[in-house]
Amino acid sequence: MLNIELTANPALAPAQGVFMLFLLGLISLGVAFYVKSKLVKNTHDFIIAGRKLGFGFGVAGLISVWTWAMAVMMSAAMTYNFGLSGLWWFTVPNGLAVIAVIPFAKQLREKMPHGYTMGEFVSSRFSGARLARIVVTVGLIFGSLIEIIINLKGTSLVISTVFGMPQATVAVIAIAIVLVYSMLGGLWASMSTSTLTTLFITVPASVVLMAVLSHLGGPAPIWSAVADRGPELLSVTRADVPAVFGITLALGLLTATLAGQSFWQVVWGLKPKEVGRTFLWAGAWFYPIPICLGILGLVGIALNVDLATNLGNDAAAVGPFVISHIGLPNWLVYTYVFVILSACYSTMDGALASLSSLAAIDVIKPISPQINDRKLFTLTRASMLVTAAIALGVVLSGVDFVTIVLTTYAIRTAILVPLMLAIFWRKMTAGGFIWGTIAAIVIGMPLRMALGELVGTLLILGISTVVPIAMSISNSRLFDYASLKQVEDI
Amino acid sequence: MQDFRRFLGSSKYFVIGAMATGIALAFTSDVQAAAGAGGSGNALSAGTILFIVIGAVVSILYIKAMLTVLHEAADSYSEDEAESAGSYYAAPAWGAAIAGVLAALVIWSYGLSPSLLYLGPILAMISPIAILYCLSQDIKNFKVAHANDQKTSSEKLSGLRG
User: Fold this and answer.
1) What's the pTM value of the predicted model, to 2 decimals?
2) Would you call B80 an interface residue with chain A, using a CB distance cutoff of 8 Å?
3) A216 vs B45: CB contact, 8 Å cut-off?
4) What letter does residue A309 receive in the DSSP assignment?
């Protein structure tokens, strides 16, 4: 039986939180400075890394970009809520969502070697269809913006809880640091710092979990305490979990990768032959992170951590709560916070880099096609500043950003199948793409609100599949994918 | 072993230093006292120390490989790499299936025996080692490309002489 008194660590002060925020920031800044001086000469280098990303940076960068600060905490939260079934349904689709990109990525990288964004692809695929490009671009911009907002909010919560700092201070410092090094090096800076943060996530997570297991007398007392609370908590076959969150999460993850610019930017930034194996390895080696950190959820169950009184009704707090309340030495608490900060910074810099490519290719270039590279470079960097300001404004104002989340979700889910069809189906028409997407949003979203997440999501996907197919099946003018090779570098 | 020593280069002193620090940490009295404050065990057990030492070594090698790749990328910045050079590396569907199934099996195994909970931290430590392998592939590719470049330029020079 576990006999641990759960008490907050009184030695953690705000100054230490500020120190940690700056420590990781300075390390990232150093890498970004090097990258800027050696590898970033123009807008092309800034937004697509000169298409010279290799296998190692690709794998490590993708793992880190995909490891959200909330994901670090949610693996433990889902385990705490549903036992091993929760961890299973959280983890397995997460890696597969990255791997699922491979066939689409290889097709587009091969057929459109000089591409930058999905909006550009849609425009080229449908002979300049403006509405289709706008819908896709808006979905991608909102997607990247929400990545920054959620990570900034999550980090502010964790750091302020652990170190007793005001959330606003944490948010301002964190976004300022990420903005500075992202503006220095764009995608190169994002992938280089993310390669480093993957190390800062995996090794410390491993050490912290070993220390937690040792501190609690080994895994046996934890395991027995969980088993005492109910054998279903140690089973992966709970029937209610897929319906409660598993299937919806799996579909949501697919939309986040296939309809997310952070991933497509890497697809076009990698050396062509590395695309397939990079996504395969990234998906596979992402798995250990939630598998390791999910154990904190079991610890939470074993220690009888109470959702209402201890976690403020937010299960995502179970990891930070356990780490800061079981009497671990301070340096282990710092190490865990470093894991969360690393995940936060890398996701935010990935989102900022993806937004810069959307701004350059889908906003600035179409408005001003003859713009010179110097001006484009400046405006591209400025777009990061604007995005960071909006994200910070949302977090500081305390407004409920559910509307942004819902809008992002609606557009991303609605464009998922039309995008997949556009990539592989030669009969797909612009009308099918646009009306399939619009019908899915207009009809599907109200139905989702009325019928619930699972049914609603399946309906949105159903509508966005049936409408494009019905409208394009009789199209006799087959698209020639070789024409995508005409797209040129900026 | 010689390849490994060559890869380590002067960083072997850092590796030795990291190992010494890990061992010293284990015997530091105030850390041990803090570790035993709230829990029934010792946070800084032999297992934790082993992980700290392995983690330190992995970190040093990882950062060294990362910096090498960055240097090589900067050195070959102006070199124009033919985009169509070489075929795509394979990303077989069975590879994806194996990754998914293994992850599912590891989580399932947590429910079989308490000691299998150690798989989580072990896999998290192996993850950067796998990335280290990926980085080493990049370094190898850079070396091959440079060797080919040197061969081509020396052939051109000998052609000029002839």
Assistant:
1) 0.90
2) no
3) no
4) T
